[in-house]
Design a protein that fits this description.
heterodimer, A: alpha/beta, Rossmann fold, 4-stranded parallel beta sheet, B: FAD/NAD(P)-binding domain, FAD/NAD(P)-binding domain, 7 domains, 5-stranded parallel beta sheet, 26 helices, 54 strands, globular
């Protein structure tokens, strides 16, 4: 269990979260390589089916990162994204998957250190949950 | 109006460094033709030589490389390399410039930069690009990303050209590009204005024999150190010292070499950048080797810019040692080590051995600047830089000739970029009526329609020098990607962004009939436009391109985990390839724009911005929340310049300008739209109204911090800096009273955890006040209680004057005790402070105490960023698009910023930034249309159930329900005007019927990407 390396897909909005990830890079902040970022124009573009596809393909966790609340470039895309995240967390429960495998965070473009810390924290949570049960099915 | 002017619509920009580059790009986008005159064989200047840049540690060449290519590829910029300016005759609007184009001995149209010539050239010479640390050949290119990427021969070094023998390069050149008969050629150009951006030299420390620079190999300059750190430098980025190529474990930086020094050299000014670059070099060195000991020996640490103080604090946390001492003696130790002897803060003599000593050399005027100035007929100041005035900081002494960057005064990159845009504003404004008379427009080859072709993907994996390749196994990734579905061509490249690599990408598109392209390198935020342009030039639709960010989000953040980073790179490329296979051709449409600007805030920044925009010919709406114009300006007193008179005249000019409409007592309430077409609802004295505008400039300002310490508000003799200004401006008699003691406390509630930033202006401000008091009352006793004195640039002269005239500077540190102030029985203020030299407390009995409290951001900042969708830094200042190269732009296209809203700064820098904002505005408003669409939402009418979810979800009310045009008998459907869609994708994710497609981020594309990233490789279809 201890050498389990989770696979996490992070959906990051281009104005804040993706930029924050780049900021973390330019500051050379070291964080877990278990997280791979997918650029989306706004966290409002995050769609339930994207998370489901990731989980269905064998991802152990899905992360959504948008602008700070009130700072969304498109007004409330991040608020809408959060609603979908909460909705899907409930649905995951129903199908027997830990809702903690999905999470959302808000960061501004300058918050590279916070981004790195959030990502590490989430990866720790997912690591604690162990491999996604879906993966076992895939392997079978 | 363009047709009946006698003025030329062209500008000459002298210098191809970052200053010249920014000026040239702005001018070209403003509608002027630009001749960029560069003395050397390639543009790029000092930034091309730097390793990383403070305070973001961004790779310098990575930042400037796209700009080099923008200039090199710009249809309205003509680069003239190896060219000298001989004379400039005529006057503003109609200059006749005589130039000498020196021979390159290489036919630029033939050279393919293959490097065969340099391989075979027998003549090794000192490599000045690497600051002489290694050698190059007599035939050479300066650096890998050089623009133009063409070889050249230095005639004085070439054996054939000096002795008539050899000729190797000509023999081996496969392109027959070598021409020994090349001759210098004189050309004459007509231009309307001139921008001088010829940069600086680094101080040569061999004149100061104390440092033993020319004798000992392990005493090097900071510029040499930059090259040593650089991946493309003499040691490929391995941190070794010159004498024995050993990795140094202990390095010292000596500050103020060739700066703040009237003993050993005649450089009394502060070079403004050395503290920050020394800290940066120390931090980066510790990244190279974590057990490395780094010590910086300094007089004052001058980390006064945006995020600089935090950077300094981080360096201390990372273990960089800072010692306040000016080193007087260096002695040799065995094995090439160096002993530094110094006196520490406690007055003790210390002796310490270092393995490498880096001299933080200052900026000096270029050796050829006197000759250039004579040819331009402009004056230099007493320090040898171009003469300008504080309130006209980019005007030379000749009308129509402007100057920007370090040619005026030592300064950092963001300040240089601001000045460069300001110079573009000035150079464009004086020939505004000739705009567009000499510009050309670009044509692309016809686009190949790939709709019916199966995907053929090309993949380029970038080393980024060692930025990526030192962590990620590039060869492994390349081999892996060759087998991914639809990949026809996969290769590695040292720098994907170099002109040479871009050409190879274009060639590969043709050669392998590629119809999609993937580049795995850095971030699409900075580099996607450049690669898209390459696609367009190769006849492919520019949207058939996808990037994988394997540097900023991989190699840089997993430096210690090469295996996992390599696995991650494979996954990222896998995802990019999967998405690329599904990319479609997309088209933008032309859209009109409102050629008017909205300027928010009417302080010195807003007034200057509005006036400059209006003078460039565009109407301006100027909002001011109070009923007076001028902001902080009318409260400021300066000994050096008539600020109040200046602001009064500025207000008058703005009020009298026919193109400026002023709205007092008015605030913005909400804003929507996009570049070219914004609509802002405002609330004024007569209620709400809406302004349509194409661009926005936020100049919401800041104000003096009100402290809760040192008896402020309790004792009437405790003042703020602006209160003291008022006493000085009104010539108050208390200043001249006999036997008066005036004290100043610096950094009041500044540079402390709650307000960690330095406000940049306060040291200079207090010193100016002190000198003014002394001018009027020479007997007055003045104390300035300070931490570091941050009189950067020429402001250092004021500090020197203050010291020579007896102003007493007492340094305190926060940890060992701030000053204490109590009201004395005699009506005086009793200030106790521990003197750092006596090492014991002393008592000052002051009549007046002035508190330098620094600047707070605008209290309405939260509302402002909410209305305009901006971002705030942790300190509450507006967050610009890029700290180094876009200091005037906000993240949203068409939005700009200037003045204190950006960061505390002195008036002259506010003026510069405001004028710069006008140039940036003009790059948009000069156009007759903007291109819109592309990455937008499109409704499929057949799937639309007219449920109106998208209508409710859209943040900008774009969707409408329209009739079915194909068959009006059928039900209608939702429709998004392509020009209005902002491209957020919210409607796409909300639509329950999945009837909306988000171009470039379609469900199919994103699902394929996610699946490919999560799952291991799929086999290539047979």
């Amino acid at each position: 269990m201890s050498d389990f390396e989770p696979k996490i897909i992070a959906f990051c909005c281009q104005y804040c979260a993706y930029n924050a990830a780049d900021t973390a890079g330019s500051m050379r902040l070291q964080y877990t390589p278990n997280v791979e970022i997918v650029l989306i124009p706004c966290s409002g573009r995050f769609d339930v089916i994207l998370a489901l596809k990731a989980l269905e393909s064998g991802a152990d966790g899905v992360y959504v990162a948008g602008c700070l609340e009130g700072g969304c470039h498109f007004l409330d895309g991040n608020i809408r994204a959060r609603k979908r995240v909460v909705y899907l967390q409930n649905e995951l429960k129903k199908i027997g998957l830990e809702p903690e495998r999905l999470a959302m965070v808000n960061v501004s473009a300058s918050q590279g250190p916070q981004f790195a810390a959030y990502v590490d924290e989430f990866a720790g949570v997912v690591k604690g949950l162990g491999p996604s049960p879906i993966k076992k099915h895939l392997a079978a | 109006m363009a047709n009946n002017t006698t003025k030329s619509g062209a500008v000459m920009v002298i210098g191809g460094g970052i200053a010249g580059i920014q000026s040239a790009l702005d001018l070209a986008e403003m509608g002027f033709y630009v001749y960029m005159v560069e003395k050397g064989p390639a543009i790029g200047g000092r930034m091309a030589q730097l390793d990383k840049t403070f305070p973001t540690n961004d790779c310098s060449i990575c930042m400037i490389s796209p700009k080099l290519n923008d200039v090199g590829g710009h249809i309205n910029i003509e680069i003239l390399t190896l060219t000298d300016v001989l004379s400039v005759k005529g006057s503003e609007g109609d200059f006749s410039v005589k130039l000498r184009k020196n021979p390159r001995y290489i036919d630029m149209s033939k050279c393919i930069a293959c490097g065969e010539c340099a391989n075979k050239c027998p003549k090794k010479v000192s490599n000045y690009f690497n600051e002489g640390v290694d050698t190059r050949k007599a035939i050479y290119v300066e650096y890998a990303q050089a623009v133009p990427l063409k070889f050249s021969i230095n005639a004085e070094e070439c054996i054939y050209l000096t002795k008539g023998k050899c000729g190797n390069c000509k023999k081996v050149c496969p392109a027959d590009a070598v021409n020994y008969e090349d001759k210098a050629e004189e050309v004459t150009l007509r231009v309307g204005s001139v921008v001088v951006a010829s940069g600086f030299d680094v101080f040569d420390p061999s004149v100061a024999d104390t440092y033993r620079y020319s004798q000992w190999p392990n005493v090097i300059t900071s510029m040499e150190y930059e090259r040593i750190l650089s991946a493309s430098g003499p040691f490929q980025g391995h941190l070794v010292r010159p004498s024995d190529h050993k990795e140094p474990k202990k390095i010292a930086w000596l500050q103020c070499v060739g700066s703040r020094d009237i003993n050993r050299c005649d450089k009394r000014y502060c070079s403004a950048v050395c503290c920050m670059y020394a800290i940066k070099e120390a931090v980066i060195s510790k990244e190279h080797a974590s057990d490395l000991e780094a010590a910086v020996f300094y007089m004052d640490i001058r980390t006064y810019g945006k995020d600089f103080e935090k950077y300094y604090n981080r360096a201390q946390d990372a273990g960089v040692r800072f010692v306040r001492s000016r080193i007087h003696t260096l002695t040799p130790a065995p094995n090439g080590d160096i002993i530094l002897e110094y006196i520490d803060d406690a007055g003790e003599r210390q002796s310490e051995v270092f393995e490498l000593v880096v001299l933080s050399v200052g900026m000096t005027p270029r050796t050829n600047l006197p000759e250039l100035a004579a040819n331009l007929d402009i004056d230099l100041n007493e320090d040898g830089f171009i003469q300008t005035q504080p309130l006209t900081p980019i005007n030379s002494t000749r009308t129509g000739v402007f100057a920007c960057g370090a040619v005026n005064e030592p300064k950092d990159i963001p300040s240089t970029v601001m000045e460069a845009s300001a110079a573009a504003e000035a150079a464009g404004r004086v020939i505004a009526e000739a705009k567009g008379t000499l510009t050309k427009s670009r044509t692309y080859p016809p686009e190949r329609d790939i709709k019916d072709e199966p995907p053929r993907i090309g993949v380029f994996i970038c080393h980024c020098g060692i930025n990526i390749a030192s962590v990620i196994n590039i060869e492994e990734v390349v081999n892996y990607c060759k087998d991914l579905p639809f990949v026809e061509h996969c290769t590695n490249t040292l720098f994907a962004c170099s002109a040479d690599s871009l050409n190879k990408i274009k060639e590969a598109i043709t050669e392998h009939k590629l119809n999609r392209l993937v580049v795995a390198s850095c971030t699409p935020r900075t580099h996607e436009p450049m690669f898209r342009e390459a696609l367009a030039q190769a006849g492919l639709n520019k949207y058939l391109f996808e990037m994988a960010n394997i540097r900023d989000q991989d190699s840089w953040v997993h430096q210690k985990e090469p295996v996992k980073a390599t696995q991650k790179a494979k996954a990222l490329v896998r995802g990019a390839v999967a998405k690329a296979a599904l990319l479609e051709q997309m088209y933008q449409t032309k859209m009109g724009l409102t050629k008017e600007a909205l300027v928010v805030g009417a302080g010195a920044a807003g007034l200057n911005s509005a006036l400059s925009i209006a003078q460039l010919g565009y109407p301006v709406h100027l909002l001011e929340k109070t009923d007076v114009l001028g902001g902080n300006g009318p409260k400021i007193f300066s000994r050096e310049k008539d600020v109040r008179g200046y602001v009064a005249k500025l207000i008058k000019d703005v009020e009298n300008h026919p193109l400026i409409k002023i709205y007092k007592n008015t605030v913005p309430k909400s804003s929507h739209g996009f570049v070219g077409n914004f609509e802002t609802k405002c609330l004024g004295p007569n209620g709400e109204f809406t302004i349509s505008h194409g661009v926005t400039v936020l100049c919401a300002g800041g104000h003096a911090h009100k402290p809760a310490s040192y008896l402020y508000g309790e004792n009437p003799n405790v003042l703020l800096s602006l209160d003291m200004d008022e006493l000085l401006a009104t010539n108050d008699p208390i200043i001249k009273k006999p036997n008066q003691t005036f004290a100043f406390i610096q950094c009041v509630e500044s540079r402390e955890p709650d307000r960690p930033y330095c406000s940049k202006i306060c040291c200079t401000h207090s010193i100016e006040s002190a000198l003014t008091i002394l001018d009027r009352n020479p007997e007055a006793i003045i104390y300035i209680l300070c931490r570091d004195v941050r009189t950067y640039g020429f402001r250092e002269k004021l500090y020197q004057e203050a010291r020579s005239r007896g102003v007493r500077f007492i340094k305190y540190c926060v940890d060992c005790g701030k000053p204490e102030v109590v009201a004395g029985a005699n009506g005086k203020l009793n200030i106790t402070i521990k003197d750092h030299i006596l090492n014991r407390p002393i008592l000052i009995e002051a009549d007046y105490l002035t508190l330098a409290t620094g600047i707070d951001p605008n209290p309405m900042r939260e509302e402002i960023v909410e209305v305009f969708k901006g971002q705030l830094s942790a300190e509450g200042f507006l967050f610009e698009a890029h700290m180094k190269l876009r200091p005037v732009d906000l993240a949203t296209d068409g939005q700009y910023l200037a003045g204190l809203a950006h960061y505390p700064k002195p008036l002259e820098e506010t003026i510069v930034q405001a004028k710069a904002s006008a140039a940036r505005v003009a790059t948009i408003l000069s156009k007759d249309h903007i291109m819109v669409g592309g990455v937008i939402a499109v409704v499929n009418p057949e799937k639309c159930a007219v449920c109106c979810t998208c209508v409710r979800a859209c943040p900008v009310q774009v969707p409408k329900i329209v009739r079915n045009e194909v068959d009006p008998a059928l039900r209608g459907h939702a429709f998004m005007e392509p020009a209005m869609c902002h491209g957020c994708g919210v409607c796409v994710s909300e639509c329950p019927g999945k009837a909306i497609k988000f171009q470039f981020f379609t469900d199919e594309q994103l699902l394929a990407k996610v699946e490919a990233m999560v799952q291991e490789k799929k086999a290539k279809p047979a």
